[in-house]
Specification:
Blueprint: H1 3-18, E1 31-34, H2 37-40, H3 49-57, E2 62-63, E3 96-100, H4 103-109, H5 116-122, H6 131-140, E4 145-149, H7 165-179, E5 185-188, H8 211-226, H9 228-234
Parallel strand pairs: 1-2, 1-3, 3-4, 4-5
Helix pairs in contact: 3-8, 8-9
């Protein structure tokens, strides 16, 4: 079995293990989280990104993320399964909405190859048009502040994710431009989270975050929610 096949098989195992949805754990929660495997992995063990955020903030985070989710999905049935990120939203009195996504659209939608048209559909170069800005605009219309989370890197090691590094960097750049258009939209990059050659932030497939990685992502997001001005003043991503 080739390395690529092993990586894909490993990813499929994570997908089967992660197709669960957290339920409301308190009345009137104010934080909603949506997205793909970056958020959803380790949910069964209580160590997903939302769980880490809860521990650092001391309040519930409603997790609607699903492994394998995309923004642009070819099958209508995907919405019922939560695989369409735009259909993961549930009404509530949210102060903060956290969302990630786009990686599966690129990896499975264009194979990290001829992705220019796919990326443009997701988010335009100026950050103003596309599925992601449209969805974030809908979330902002509810009055909630929105955090869009960027791509986790695997610097210093071979990974399926690194084949998409140029596409991921382009998406991050566009998302950062989107955030500059609205003071209540925040872009949180993860490009600087993993030290070069450090394998401990990733699961064995070197695609998904490890428990340590999910904890670090959750802590970063919690820091922003707790003190936005302080976070932005000290946050200097690569």
């Amino acid at each position: 079995m080739t390395w690529l096949k092993k990586a894909i098989l490993s990813a499929c195992v994570f997908i089967l293990a992660g197709c669960v949805e957290s339920v409301t754990r308190a009345d009137n929660p104010r934080i909603l989280l949506m997205g793909d495997s970056l958020m959803a992995i380790h949910g069964l063990s209580g160590n997903a990104v939302a769980d880490a955020m809860e521990r650092h903030l001391g309040e519930p985070v409603i997790d609607r993320s699903v492994i394998g989710a995309r923004f642009i999905y070819p099958l209508p049935i995907s919405g019922a399964a939560g695989l369409n990120i735009t259909k993961q939203y549930r009404e509530g009195e949210w102060d903060w909405i956290v969302v990630n996504g786009g990686g599966n659209d690129i990896l499975f939608g264009c194979g990290c190859g001829p992705c220019a048209r796919k990326i443009d559909r997701l988010i335009s170069e100026d950050g103003r048009k596309g599925v992601i800005p449209g969805f974030i605009g809908r979330m902002r219309s509810t009055g909630a502040k929105v955090i869009y989370v960027g791509y986790l890197r695997t610097p210093g090691t071979t990974s399926l994710v690194e084949f998409c590094v140029d596409e991921g960097r382009k998406m991050d750049e566009r998302a950062a431009r989107l955030a500059k258009l609205d003071d209540d939209v925040y872009f949180v990059a993860l490009s600087d989270l993993v030290p070069y050659g450090d394998f401990s932030f990733h699961a064995l497939d070197t695609i998904h975050p490890s428990i340590k990685g999910s904890e670090a992502i959750g802590q970063r997001l919690a820091n922003l929610i707790r003190d936005p001005k302080g976070f932005l003043a000290s946050y200097k991503p690569n």
